[in-house]
Amino acid sequence: EEAGVQRDRVVPAEEWLQKWAAGKTGFHKERGHPYKYLDVLVNGRSGLRIFFPLCGKAVEMKWLADLGHRVVGAEISERALREFFSEQGLPYREEAVPGVPGARLLQSTCGNISLYCCSIYDLSSAIIGKFDGVWDRGALVAVNPCDRQRYASLMISLMEKNSSYLLVTVLYDPNKHKGPPFYVPEGEMRSLFG
Asked: Subcellular location, in the record's words (predicted)?
């Protein structure tokens, strides 16, 4: 379970912004993930607060909001967030985020989807509250390997006692691909999230 060539790889924020600007978003799933994943996360509960780290324009945010949950996302690309609202046909309002210089909050006018445009590390439970569920599809595997511990600690700090954490990762030989997505061995997932 060697991290291979990936251990020291760092993808700067700028590179992610360029991917969005150029439309190189192979990681975005137009059709979303099978509903079975939603069931696992929601587990029959209603009115949950669900966090989407590094949300991009994930269509599942709309699905979950339509099911009566409140969705909060964090994403560095403003373009991705604007595309989400326009592609889903959702009107939204925009405001600054108190205490986070340069950050913007884009919120659906009915208030059930709140997307923060900033570095995820600028957020905390004091700003965005705590969550009953986390939808991590392609977030942990996009985080620079050197930031994983910081990322996991942040996620844990955002979780309510009985929250569910849906984590979708990718399996492949990390010596053959420099990432992202990065390979996260199962042992490391356990040590990060306990």
From this structure: Cytoplasm
